[in-house]
Amino acid sequence: MSSTSRCRVRLWFGPHQISDYIGDQAAAARYEAAMRRRFPGLEITTDPLPVTARPADYSPADLHR
Q1: Which DSSP state fits 51?
Q2: Domains of the chain by residue range
């Protein structure tokens, strides 16, 4: 995933994050679509990540909605 844009997809149950996925744009879009089908009532957020970011840089404890 060096030059490909990446996205972070998170699934929320109220204020609680219950899923966190980071992948290239196409994979993140597929994951988001699958989560929307499976959990239609829950909030899903999708955020772009810088190309140089590492998944470890974006732990749930460090980021807030």
Answers
A1: T
A2: 6-48
Which one-letter amino acid corresponds to residue 10? Answer: R
Q: Is 22 exposed, middle or buried (0-12, 13-18, 19+ CB in 10 A)?
A: buried
Q: 10, 31 in Cβ contact below 8 A?
A: no
Rounded Cα distance between 3 and 20, Å, is 22
Please tell me whether the overall predicted TM-score, pTM, comes out greater than 0.85 for this model.
Answer: no
Residue 6, classed as helix, strand or coil, is strand
What's the CA gap between 13 and 25, in Å, rounded?
23
DSSP 56: G
Phi-psi region of 52 (alpha: psi -120 to 50; beta: other; left: phi over 0): alpha
- Render pLDDT for 36-54 as a digit per residue (tens, 0 to 9): 999 999 999 999 987 665 6
Look at the block and give the residue holding tokens 């810088």. 50
